[in-house]
Structures are given as C-alpha cells and as structure tokens.
C-alpha cells in the first residue's frame, strides 16, 4: 500500500504546501513544532478540511478539492493513535478493542484479535479499565483498537510525547513490530531523532509548512542541511547484526565488515538491528589513536566536509561499518588537515550508543 498527499492550507504565520508520496511501512513527518505535521495528519483523517489538495491511500481517494470529493472521517477507514490514548474509561480493555472491530467493514479482511493481543502483550489487561493502566499500557491498547478497525492507514500523532523515557522504551518495540508484521501503512508524527532513526521506512522533513527533504532515514538524518534536524540531531543510521553478548556486559555488533561494541542490549544473537550514532559523539584522528578507553575505532576516509555558520563542521567518513558522521570544529578540520579522500579514524565511545538509539529488524529500502 502507498499514500499520496498533496495539501495546501493557511496556518497562523505560515502557508502549508506539502506534497509527498509515502511507501508501505512507517512514514515519519519530522520537524519542529509549528511545521505543519499535525495539520497534515488531521487533514488526512478528515478532522480538518484544507484549502486545497488531494489525498489517496493505495489509489482510494479520501478527498479531492478540485473534484469536490470529500469522504467524512468515519468512511475513510483510518486508525488514529493520539498522544493520550483516548480510551473509553467506562469500558474494559477487551471492550475498547471490540469497539475498534465494530467499525471494521465485514467485507474486508480483519486482523486476528488474538494475534494483535499477543503482539502488543496486553492479554493480561483485558478485564481492566483504562484508569488502572499505565501510560504505556494505554498506548498499547490504543494501538490495538486502531489496528482492529481494519484501517487502510494508521495515523499516529506524537504517540510517545506524553510518556516518560521508560514508557517510551516500552512502546517503541511494539511500533517496530507493527511496522514489520502488519501490512497497514503508518503516518507517524514526531520531533524525536531517535524515533525517526528507529522506526522510519521513509522520512518527510518539514519546515514552515514545506517539505524540505524526503527519503530513507539513513539519508535524511545524515544531512545537516535539513534545517528541522538541528546539528544535534544529525547522525549516522547503520544496519547491524548482533554477533555476541560478552560476560563483561558488552554486546558485540557486526556492521558490514566492522565490529562495534555497546552496553548489553536485550536482542538475540543473529538479530538484525539498526542503530543511530549521533555526530556529536564521534571524534576524528589523523592517525590510529593509542592509549584510549574507546573500543570503537574505525579506519576510513573523508567523504565530505560541510562547514556550518558557526565554528562547527560535519565530516562524513566512509568506514567498513558504513558512513559515519562526526561533528567537530572547523579549527580541528584545519589542524588535522582533513579533506575529501584523506584517511582518518573515527572514534566512538561505547557508552555513547544509547539504548533509545538501538532499534529492531527493519532493513533499509534500496
């Protein structure tokens, strides 16, 4: 399935003019607050009627202002996951899930409730009411309710924004399973670089109502010219495989032809993952460093150097693990004599690879 969006709308201070096509999987709308992300989602849902535009899901038109076609929200067959879950407090979890199935047309294929309940790990919650659930549990039930409505598309508007870090860590693996095991496309709103790196099949970066970059997470997140990112969000996204868990608490990863170490993660040996390495956590050396505590030292060569408006620069280094980005000062670039094609070494602190930057199973699109 695919999603095609073309919207124009007047917003306070900006003009929304967004056009993009999203493949199957998770398409992340990424940008700062006020960029137009939620407006796009609400227009797709039918909660807002834009000034002009057209949206279709797998060739099925939800609205087309030129043709004066407008399907009301309840006929669009969409699942919407809000920040707060928005479960019915007087119904049990089982009844909330059944409410989603009640809206599913009998003529369309339906998800197996038992499969959805197992996938989301909510079987033990079925007889409880929302007031007795944690924030993470509520969101898992909300995901299940949306999925059991047999939607053509799932909309998720910053579904983790209201959760603390522990609850976010609890929920992210379920969105990964949803992406990998369910054929329903997902339009996902966030301003978190970690969520983008872990979840996105495709990224649509927005600034002031305009699409400034679209593509795979590995490409968009590595581009410091994409204004919504900010230099602190720039980083490499690598495909890796768990190769070993060591007795000293470290996990060894295989990345292309290289090895990386990070604090132990709860993934099985042989499992494919992708990890985000923030550019600010990488330092460069012109010679192989000695006497360092860092375990991750990758030999490579400089690909590009992009100087910022301030004292910093983003250096792209091609290594056996893939392309690594380093955020260093322009003074350091000059001191090391860095230039395109020059050999260098990328040094990554083991503890700099945070758990929230490690995600499961998705392989990059070609």
TrEMBL record:
GO terms for cellular component: membrane. The keyword ATP-binding applies. Pfam families: ABC_tran (PF00005), TOBE (PF03459). Residues 291-357 form the Mop domain. PROSITE patterns: ABC_TRANSPORTER_1, ABC_TRANSPORTER_2, MOP. GO terms for molecular function: ABC-type transporter activity; ATP binding; ATP hydrolysis activity; molybdate ion transmembrane transporter activity. Keywords: ATP-binding, Cell inner membrane, Cell membrane, Membrane, Molybdenum, Nucleotide-binding, Translocase, Transport. Signal peptide: none annotated. The keyword DNA-binding does not apply. NCBIfam families: modC_ABC (TIGR02142). This is Molybdate transport system ATP-binding protein.
């Amino acid at each position: 399935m695919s999603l095609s969006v073309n919207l124009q709308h007047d917003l306070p201070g900006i003009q929304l003019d967004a056009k993009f096509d999203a493949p199957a999987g998770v398409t992340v709308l990424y940008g700062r607050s006020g960029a137009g992300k939620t407006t796009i989602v609400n227009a797709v849902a039918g909660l807002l009627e834009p000034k002009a535009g057209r949206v279709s899901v797998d060739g099925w038109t939800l609205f087309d202002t030129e043709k004066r076609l407008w399907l009301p929200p309840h006929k669009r067959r969409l699942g919407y996951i809000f920040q707060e879950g928005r479960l019915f407090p007087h119904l049990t979890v089982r009844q909330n899930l059944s409410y989603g199935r009640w809206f599913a047309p009998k003529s369309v294929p339906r998800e197996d409730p038992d499969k959805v309940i197992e996938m989301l790990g909510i079987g033990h919650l079925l007889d409880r009411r929302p007031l007795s659930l944690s924030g993470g549990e509520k969101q898992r039930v909300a995901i299940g309710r949306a999925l059991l409505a047999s939607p053509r598309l799932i909309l998720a508007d910053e579904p983790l924004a209201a959760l603390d870090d522990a609850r976010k860590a609890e929920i992210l693996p379920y969105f990964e399973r949803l992406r990998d095991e369910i054929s329903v496309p997902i339009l996902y709103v966030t301003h978190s670089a970690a969520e983008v790196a872990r979840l996105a099949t495709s990224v649509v970066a927005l600034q002031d109502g305009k699409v400034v970059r679209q593509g795979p997470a590995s490409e968009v997140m590595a581009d410091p010219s994409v204004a919504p990112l900010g230099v602190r969000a720039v980083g490499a996204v690598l495909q890796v495989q768990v190769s070993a868990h060591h007795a000293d608490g470290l996990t060894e990863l295989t990345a292309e032809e290289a090895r990386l170490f990070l604090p132990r993660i709860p993934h099985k040996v042989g499992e494919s993952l992708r990890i985000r390495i923030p550019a600010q956590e990488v330092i460069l050396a012109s010679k192989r460093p000695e006497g360092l505590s860092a375990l991750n030292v990758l030999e490579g060569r400089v690909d590009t150097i992009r100087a910022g408006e301030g004292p910093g620069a983003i250096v792209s280094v091609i290594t056996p693990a893939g392309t690594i980005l380093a955020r260093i000062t322009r003074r350091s670039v000059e001191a090391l004599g860095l230039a395109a094609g020059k050999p260098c070494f990328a040094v990554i602190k083991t503890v700099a690879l945070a758990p929230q930057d490690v995600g499961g199973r998705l392989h990059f699109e070609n």
